[in-house]
From TrEMBL:
One of its GO terms (molecular function) is thiamine pyrophosphate binding. This is 2-oxoglutarate dehydrogenase E1 component. SMART domains: Transket_pyr (SM00861). The keyword Transferase does not apply. It is an enzyme of class 1 (oxidoreductase). GO terms for biological process: tricarboxylic acid cycle. GO terms for cellular component: cytosol; oxoglutarate dehydrogenase complex.
Length: 942
């Protein structure tokens, strides 16, 4: 044993060997030498199995520290029982140090109200580690503890640990696997014991920002008592926190900060950080109209942008618009940030920073939080790390019981899934808040990972200013009623320490109030004449009126060159057999010996846009190959798994073509692309669902952003959704993209809903979305069976010379005067109708395809049928049940057009489709087939 103590874990050079032994012991205790097994058995918390009272990790992690220690621990003399015990105590001290790193946060003073019941933490007790007060004056080696000396008395070690981990900051970072990150964080907190010695000027600035935060709330409370504003009272330290984050990030070279947050504190941030004019805010409180068109939105949903000056230069701030779905703004911010980083060629995320502010209940309760954390290190979505701030009021609306609000100890535990460090900080200790903020931004810049600051505070006035909180939280609000504000507490401390006097404190209050009364800007770093180069230029896309027509033609020769280039796969790329067949067919399509199919027409649309200078970003589930294996825009080398993306190799210095198979998310992924599209107006941004109905999972994004963002906030967006739709007998969940829901949301020309039926149509539709200046969301109900349908082909000339047809007239050779019936339809059912007509030789019926259902093309539809002067019957045919699809939302348009051809005809508009149903489609092929035959027959004979 003497030799073991002298040559193993007491010597840094052999620590790795000890680590391996311990890991081996955990797997099989009998596999290690007897003396080591006896030693490991003696460790606290391990009696042949993990203790229920203490996590195993702190014990095991001591060996990580021994292995990574920069200083070799000096050998201790051995040979006596006394020395043996000293050696054992040395190891127990190291265990104690680790225990503080793991669990010190549970003992920390992080609740400003003192209502948090701190549970007893057994492994922070001396007795747990078989130490006692008698050991307090004994000097032990400090191991990896950063306190500036190799050894110290136990009482000094404990004092350092208590000051570092159990005061106003509760640190959680030992769940991080990466050793470098842990060592870095230990150094940052332990070296200053979580309380740096800030200069008087720094602390005065913090007080000034606290005064501004409190001053605005007091001003609004006195001027508009009882008016809902979701004030920041109780969480005023949020303002100096964000101020420091922006200033420090600017010093790092960050040029843009994109902020997402819900309601609480939003008005305060707008005025005191972003520099919104107080007079403009007052106008909003007074109910004055602030926009020329649209519905507008409440003041605590509004976005804003401005520029502020930092020590590192000018920084552009953008506060994202956010509805009441709270955390849904999180992926929107990430998408906007990624777009800005791509525009700057900022692949590491050095120049654009995402800042997301959460509420304690929402961050724990809403699933999109998990989805967005999952994005944080993915190729297609990462942004170099996000700084998360939780304004933790310790109560979600009226849910004060933790066992009603979440199943985890902290609301921030979700962040551990991506190994983010979490700093719980007492909002009444602004110096601690400042330190946590500085470490957070430094960590993000150093490691390009997410980091979380949990600002523990309270809300002085309840959920909103019209709410009486004591009805549901009587004890909390008894405490709050007598509790001084953060500003008052901090000002008192600074006066007591001689940093400033009472007159200076009063001067800050009076000066801020005077600025508000005079309507002056109160964001002290605001740039009055901002650098416009930091903005996204939307000027070319403003003021365009709706038009369905757009010249989307493309030079045929150049298209053939691009098509040939797209089919050129290097010899060293071993292509899978079916994929090779796809590309062989495409070469035939270029030569004219095969008709252009859907997949090739779609990728040609991307190629021509890229050739004309427009970036393309395509994401979704199975997007590289296409869910139905029609796209194969990414070729996988069968030899080594490498990939070849032809659209990335069209010409030198071409715009980006990015295509990513997304993780299996709808809400977070679609919101990300919305944020991206609202920041990149010159590109085609498309999100594809595996099946159209999967978009159901993103209904919040569709309702709150895509369909209404322009009318609420004046926010333009050209996002395209590709939603496979069509009834092929695949059951309720794989048939309908829920067309009816999109049409119900359509108004004021807010978006486009299209159902293209030919390759040429998808080609021109995608090009139209980018070529014209109008920026509206585009919902494409894309096909499944039509991807390979023998009749669904086009020629290169259709692509080069044509344009998107909102209505496709009948393609048969009918005599206009013989037509007695017209069938209107959209989508795949057209081919069923055309096949039935051909088989039954019906020359009295025309089939008209309405390819754009919104904005409804009444003029184009009239032009398609006005030559049928003997028209007697008009029928709308759809595959969907009667209560779904386009019937209820579009019939009034069709009636109006029919009446213009033959008055009264519209009133008799017929319906051919499935009967009303609670489910979108039948789950049995036989039932599906019978329903399909019936609705087609009814279209001709009903």
């Amino acid at each position: 044993m003497e030799l073991m103590w002298r040559t193993s874990h007491m010597s840094g050079s052999n620590a790795h060997y000890v680590e391996e032994l311990y890991e081996q012991y955990l797997s099989d205790p009998q596999s290690v030498p007897d003396e080591w097994r006896q030693y490991f058995d003696s460790l606290p918390g391990y009696d042949g199995g993990p203790s229920r009272d203490v996590p195993l990790a702190p014990i095991r992690d001591q060996f990580y520290h021994l292995a990574r220690d920069r200083r070799s621990l000096a050998p201790v003399a051995s040979g006596t029982a006394e020395n043996e015990e000293t050696n054992r105590k040395q190891v127990r001290v190291l265990q104690l140090i680790n225990a503080y790193r793991f669990r010190g946060h549970q003992k920390a003073n992080i609740d400003p109200l003192g209502l948090r019941i701190a549970e007893t933490v057994p492994d922070l007790e001396l007795s747990f580690h078989q130490l006692s007060d008698a050991d307090m004056d004994t000097e032990f080696q400090t191991g990896s503890l950063f306190i500036g000396k190799d050894s110290a008395p136990l009482k000094e070690i404990i004092q350092a640990l208590e000051q570092t981990y159990c005061r106003s900051i509760g640190c959680e970072f030992m769940h991080i696997v990466n050793t470098e990150e842990k060592r870095w964080l230990e150094q940052r907190f332990e070296s200053v014991r979580s309380r740096p010695d800030y200069s008087a000027e720094v602390r005065k600035h913090v007080l000034e920002r606290l005064t501004a935060a409190e001053g605005l709330e007091n001003y609004l409370a006195s001027r508009y008592p009882g008016t809902k504003r979701f004030g920041l009272e109780g969480g005023e330290s949020f303002i100096p926190m964000v101020d420091e984050l922006i200033q420090r990030s600017g010093n790092y070279g960050v040029r843009e900060v994109v902020i997402g947050m819900a309601h609480r504190g939003r008005l305060n941030l707008l005025v005191n950080i972003l520099g919104k004019s107080p007079s403009e805010l007052i106008d909003e409180f007074d109910g004055k109209k602030m926009i020329e068109h649209g519905s507008g939105d409440v003041k605590y949903h509004q976005g804003f942008s401005s520029n502020v000056m930092t020590p590192g230069g000018e920084v552009h701030l953008a506060l994202a618009f956010n509805p009441s779905h709270l955390e849904i703004v999180m992926p929107v911010v990430e998408g906007s940030v990624r777009a800005r980083q791509d525009r700057r060629d900022d692949s590491e995320g050095d120049q654009v920073l995402p800042l997301v502010v959460h509420g304690d209940a929402a961050v724990a309760g809403q699933g999109v939080v998990m989805e967005t954390f999952q994005m944080s290190q993915l190729r297609g979505y990462k942004t170099g790390g996000t700084v998360h701030i939780v304004i933790n009021n310790q109560v979600g609306f009226t849910t004060s019981r933790q066992d009603d609000a979440r199943s985890t100890e902290y609301c921030t535990d979700i962040a551990k899934m991506v190994q983010s460090p979490i700093f719980h900080v007492n909002g009444d200790d602004p110096d601690a808040v400042l330190h946590a903020t500085q470490v957070a931004i430094d960590y993000r810049q150093q490691f390009k990972k997410d980091v979380v600051i949990d600002l523990i505070c309270y809300r002085r006035r309840g959920h909103n200013e019209a709410d009486e909180p004591s009805g549901t939280q009587p004890l909390m609000y008894q405490k709050i009623k007598s509790h001084d504000s953060s500003r008052t507490i901090y000002a008192r401390r600074l006066v007591e320490e001689g940093v400033l006097d009472e007159d200076e404190v009063k001067g800050l209050i009076d000066g801020y109030r005077e600025d508000l009364d005079n309507g002056n800007h109160v964001a002290n770093a605001l740039v009055q004449e901002p650098n416009s180069n930091l903005f996204v230029d939307w000027t070319p896309y403003l003021g365009h009126r709706w038009t369905g027509e757009s010249d989307t033609s493309f030079d045929l020769k150049r298209m053939q060159e691009l098509a040939t280039k797209m089919c050129d796969i290097p010899d060293d790329v071993d292509t899978q057999r079916q994929v090779a067949k796809v590309y062989e067919d495409r070469r035939k399509m270029v030569a004219g010996s095969l008709g252009i199919n859907w997949g090739f027409a779609e990728t040609l649309a991307y190629a021509t846009l890229i050739d004309q200078g427009h970036p393309v970003r395509l994401t979704g589930q199975d997007t590289g190959r296409g869910t139905f294996s029609h796209r194969h825009a990414v070729v996988h080398n069968q030899k080594d798994g490498s990939i070849w993306t032809p659209l990335c190799h069209l010409k030198p210095n071409q715009p980006d073509f990015t295509i990513y198979d997304s993780f299996l998310s709808e809400e977070g992924a679609m919101a990300f692309e919305y944020g991206y599209a609202t920041t990149t107006p010159n590109a085609l941004i498309a999100w594809e669902a595996q099946f159209g109905d999967f978009a159901n999972g993103a209904q919040v994004v569709i309702d709150q952003f895509i369909s209404s963002g322009e009318t609420k906030w004046g926010r333009l967006c050209g996002l395209t959704l590709l939603l496979p739709h069509g009834y092929e007998g695949q059951g309720p969940e794989h048939s309908s993209a829920r067309l009816e829901r999109f049409l119900q949301l359509c108004a004021e020309e807010n978006m486009q809903v299209c159902v293209p039926t030919t390759p040429a149509q998808i080609f021109h539709l995608l090009r139209r979305q980018v070529i014209r200046g109008l920026r509206k969301p585009l919902i494409i109900l894309s096909p499944k069976s039509l991807l390979r349908h023998k009749d669904a082909t086009s020629s290169l000339e259709d692509l080069s010379d044509g344009r998107f047809q909102m209505v496709i007239p009948d393609q048969g050779k009918l005599e206009a005067e013989q037509v007695k019936r017209v069938i209107f339809c959209s989508g795949k059912v057209y081919y069923d109708l055309a096949s039935w007509r051909a088989e039954n030789e019906r020359s009295d019926t025309a089939i008209i395809r309405i390819e754009q259902l919104y904005p409804f093309p009444e003029e184009s539809l009239l032009a398609a049928i006005e030559s049928y002067t003997n028209l007697e019957r008009v029928v709308w045919c759809q595959e969907e049940p009667k209560n779904q699809g386009a019937w209820y939302q579009s019939q009034h348009h069709m009636r109006k057009v029919a009446d213009q051809v033959n008055p009264g005809l519209g009133g008799e508009l017929g319906f051919a489709g499935r009967a009303e149903s609670a489910a979108p489609a039948a789950g049995y092929m036989a039932v599906h087939s019978e329903q399909q035959r019936s609705l087609v027959d009814k279209a001709f004979n009903g």
